[in-house]
Structure formats: structure tokens, C-alpha cells
Amino acid sequence: MKLYGLTGGIASGKSTVTQMFRDEGLPVIDADVLAREVVEPGQPALQEISARFPGVIRADGTLDRKALGERIFKSADERAALSAITHPRIRALAKQRTDALAAKGTKVALYDAPLLLENNLQVGMDGVIVVWCDEATQLRRLMERDSITVEQARSRIASQMSLQEKKKRATWLIDNGGALDATRQRVREIVALL
Ligand SMILES: Nc1ncnc2c1ncn2[C@@H]1O[C@H](COP(=O)(O)OP(=O)(O)OP(=O)(O)O)[C@@H](O)[C@H]1O
Ligand SMILES: [Mg+2]
User: Fold this and answer.
1) 8 Å CB contact between 85 and 45
2) Among protein residues, the one whose CA lies closest to atom 15 of ligand 1
3) In this predicted model, what pLDDT tens digit does every residue of 43-65 receive, in sequence order?
């Protein structure tokens, strides 16, 4: 089975494009969904988080993401500690899911991960699709979607690898700065290539 990574900048259109690939019949594994699964109640990662970050588990046993987010927000060390707990589990789950797809005869699948390139997950994959749009469009869509100020949007964009850097690492680029129809057309072209 061929496995391609799909990534892009924040609000560049990854979720939009992922849905288009699904519409074309390609299975997409969503790293954000896996990241939520590994911290569900009963999962070993949640117990480790509870030990390392006391006070982030709610009375009902679920993870208080907001509280955890505030704890790691300001400290690179705290973020690294969290990643050390969750990343190996997310990788293992991703492997399970890709193996299961391959076992049922799937020929091509995508792995959608916002931080694919930051975390070097493209290594061993068959190529990388980068969804991008111009900076002004990215900023505007992010502000509108999340109802945030221009400063907040800028700081979120700045916390990731720049879209310019991501574009350099792409096997295929999808320019999502225009109309959705144009993006869908490009998705169909890439599906034909894959
Ligand atoms: N071609 C387009 N034309 C107009 N609006 C668009 C287009 N593509 C995406 N959008 C809108 O822009 C916003 C960001 O798109 P989307 O949520 O797909 O980005 P994302 O890369 O998945 O973001 P995140 O990094 O936060 O997961 C959404 O509100 C979406 O509806
Ligand atoms: Mg998204």
C-alpha cells in the first residue's frame, strides 16, 4: 500500500482538502483523531499524563484539554514531556490503522497530520501533499473561523513551521487560495497521479 502524508499550515485548508480526498474514495487517517483516542479514559497515556501533570483530569475521568493546554503553553519542556507520553502511542495506533487498511487490500491511503513535517513523520512515506494558500488569505480565514484577533492569528501561525518551508518539502502542492472548485479540480488531478 502507498501511504502519503497530507499537511499544511494552520487554516490553510487541510480539513477541507481531506474531505475532498474522502469524497474521491481515498481512505484518510486523521492524526488529530488518533491523538484524542490515546488519551481516552482507560488508556495508559492518560494515566501517565495524570501523574506528570496533576490536576488535568476531570472528576468524570476525562482529560481537561484546556487545563493541560494552559500547563504546556508557556514551556517547551512541558510540551516535550507531553509529546514523550503521547507520540509513541499515536505512532503505534497509526501503524495499526495503516496495517489494517493494507490487510484489506487498500492500495492508496493518506495520513493527515498538521505537524507531519515538524515531527518528521513523512520519513518512510511515499510522498507529501502540502495544502497552502497565500498569507493574507490564511490570516483572514483563521480570524474568521476562530473569531480571533489579527494578533492572535499571527501568533498561532508563527508557532508552526512556515508554509514556505513546508512547500519546499512537498511532493505535490495544492493551492487552496482560490475557489473550492479549483481546489477540488487539483485534488482529482492528484488522485489520478497517486
Ligand atoms: N477554498 C476555500 N475558499 C473559501 N474558504 C475556505 C477554502 N478552503 C477552506 N476554507 C475555509 O477556511 C477555514 C480553514 O479551513 P480548514 O479548517 O479546512 O483548514 P485546516 O488547515 O484544516 O485548519 P487547522 O490547521 O486549524 O486544522 C475554514 O473555515 C474553511 O471553511
Ligand atoms: Mg483542520
Assistant:
1) yes
2) 13
3) 999 999 999 999 999 999 999 99
